[in-house]
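Dear colleague,

Following up on yesterday's call, I've attached the two folding results inline so they're easy to grep. Please treat them as preliminary; we haven't cross-checked anything against experimental data yet. The first protein's sequence and structure tokens come first.
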Amino acid sequence: MRIILVGQGPFGEKVLDILIRQGENIVGVFCPPDKRGQGMATAAENSGVPLLRPNKMKNAEVREAYLDLGPDLVILAFVTDIIPAALLGIPTIGTICYHPSLLPRHRGASGINWAVIQGDTRTGLTILWVDEGIDTGPILLQKEVEILPDDTTGSLYFNKLFEMGVDAIAESVALIKSGQAPKIPQDDSLATYEPPCDDTVAAVDWSKPAADVYNLIRGCDPQPGAYSTIRGGKVRFYGARLLAPMSGKEPGEIAEIKEGGLLVSLNGGVLEIGKVRDETGAKMDAGEFAKNAGLQVGMKFGM
């Protein structure tokens, strides 16, 4: 079976490594020309696998390369570019993709973020057959994990969904080779789609219930970083914990500044913030930041 692998970052590199170790016939690797693709590019070159680093997958050179390589299967391993429909009909078996949510829930580019932001207690990954929709194709396999109360998007991905996803792609290839890979239609009535998790959704609304604020901060950790303003500057929050409420404090009010942290009152709880990042771009201890910035108990975020 002739396989093209499209991907980037450590995830794409790990998928390439496991497929090579399994003895799969990788006839081509496609990855971005910037640092996102460097690890995959180096691994492909070291293994003697033909390599193409296009700016966009819609480029004519990509289609020509697909046709020259004659793939049976294309694997998308962490792809942020749009795969044009003209490429989907070229592999004889089809194209499969790793998506970090339990489809049809959380279609879109930020499936892990939104599972945390919306307070889900379970998530997982899906290997799907790609069609022309956004994460709408039939399901090949799924794996499920628990979202713990202190999980962040980062901990879910790096501690759970990363390695599980690499193994799931290898398992999917084995199922395809054996002729036992299912194509289970998604139930569109259960589908949700959310936009990319960026600064348009990452601002903290201190009037919301404590759990909602806490989930937003966890879901935006490490990127893009949920944020608020104080004394005219933007501050992003990381390493948060949800504590019992304090009486006499308003939502967004600094309740305590201590070594290693900053306590902010919420609507029904208290947020302990471990790290912050201000507009200088440097992440630092929240208590240290508060002291350096001249913040005091009683000051309010969002002002």
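Below is the second protein, in the same order (sequence, then structure):
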Amino acid sequence: MTVMSDAWLSDTRSSYDTDASGYAEKVQGLLGERPYLRASLALFAELVHRAGGGPVADVGCGPGYVTGHLHDSGVDAFGIDLSPEMIAIARRNYPNLRFEVGTMTDLNLVDGSVAGIVAFWSVIHVPDHAMPGVFEQFGRVLRPEGPLLVGFHVGDETRHASEGYTSRPINVDSHYRRPGKVVGWLRDAGFTIEAELVMGPDEDVPGAIIFARSDA
């Protein structure tokens, strides 16, 4: 059982439990509308296959749509999420796939047990002080040379949400960061950076994806 040792973890979990159905509805069909996201996941799948294949963790999987997309791409993907309600939705939507409740701050995975990791806009709720530990966890469970894909909002602010997509009260922060800041944490955790992609640089909130490789 996951122990919530930090307030931000328990707030994030309860907020997504509260708003799980609204969030799942919002992201439904998202990948079909975003060619750059699909291309990034296709490239990630290719990198996993090139590295020999194996289980891939979608960390912060939410309702499982990325896990399912990777599975359809021939990747042996499974999902982990902090929110039991999100995991329940993912299991209903993708009954043939594996989903587990867990936290990226303390992954319940054996060292070197996964061939790749995707963190698809899931680290946005992790405060700065906890980011190094999260990336150390990723490095611990990844096989040597294993690929990592990290997606996030680009910016220099933290936005607080007190109302969810279902109009019910929530309490969650989203941290918008510059790619260079995320790259620094990754390098400190023993990753080599392979590529950076910034999507919608002229939009109010650009998105970024970083491809990295485990050196451990």
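For the second protein, one point worth flagging: The domain at 7-171+184-214 is CATH 3.40.50.150 (Rossmann fold).

Best wishes,
A.L.
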